[in-house]
């Protein structure tokens, strides 16, 4: 099959979205005509932000990009991609551990749907240590994370921490 990759998917929980996520989103949006941001909804996992809050934060952080579409779905990512004519998954990688994990996922996705390709974008070195989990962990100790997340996220994080007091 000789098909151009005009649509791609970048999926994650984004709890919360970080500057590292935004870096990958901005760079991928320059490569593809349409980049869908797949926000994973796991009812078994209690996140810091609700699903709706995560979607709204992503919308506000990506409003300057005109080829972004934010979606959610149930089931396998490769099934969603197949049903929506998406042939490319975008994954950000920060470390060797990320590469090993993402490579396994890419192979599994390829096994489940041979038409799916996975493209790895190495993270910008200034964001290579950032993860949503780490942001939440250090925030519990009242650390300053303003240079690690977008301004909208920082405000939302501060509002969440006020609600816990």
UniProtKB/TrEMBL annotation:
The keyword Membrane does not apply. Pathway: Cofactor biosynthesis; coenzyme A biosynthesis; CoA from (R)-pantothenate: step 4/5. InterPro entries: Cyt_trans-like (IPR004821), PPAT (IPR001980), Rossmann-like_a/b/a_fold (IPR014729). Keywords: ATP-binding, Coenzyme A biosynthesis, Cytoplasm, Magnesium, Nucleotide-binding, Nucleotidyltransferase, Transferase. It catalyses: (R)-4'-phosphopantetheine + ATP + H(+) = 3'-dephospho-CoA + diphosphate. Residues 9-137 form the Cytidyltransferase-like domain. Belongs to the bacterial CoaD family. PANTHER family: PHOSPHOPANTETHEINE ADENYLYLTRANSFERASE (PTHR21342:SF1). This is Phosphopantetheine adenylyltransferase. It comes from Intestinibacter bartlettii.
């Amino acid at each position: 099959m000789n098909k151009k990759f005009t649509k791609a998917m970048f999926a994650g929980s984004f709890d919360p979205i970080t500057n590292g996520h935004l870096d990958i989103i901005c760079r991928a949006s320059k490569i593809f005509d349409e980049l869908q941001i797949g926000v994973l909804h796991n009812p078994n996992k209690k996140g810091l932000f609700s699903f709706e809050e995560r979607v709204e934060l992503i919308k506000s952080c990506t409003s300057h990009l005109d080829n972004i579409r934010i979606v959610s779905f149930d089931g396998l990512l490769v099934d969603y991609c197949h049903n929506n004519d998406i042939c490319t998954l975008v994954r950000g990688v920060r470390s060797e551990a990320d590469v090993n994990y993402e490579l396994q996922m890419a192979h599994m996705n390829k096994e489940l749907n041979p038409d799916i390709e996975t493209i790895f974008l190495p993270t910008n070195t200034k964001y290579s240590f950032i993860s949503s989990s780490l942001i939440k962990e250090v925030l519990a100790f009242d650390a300053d994370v303003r240079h690690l997340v977008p301004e909208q996220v920082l405000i939302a994080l501060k509002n969440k921490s006020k609600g816990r007091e």
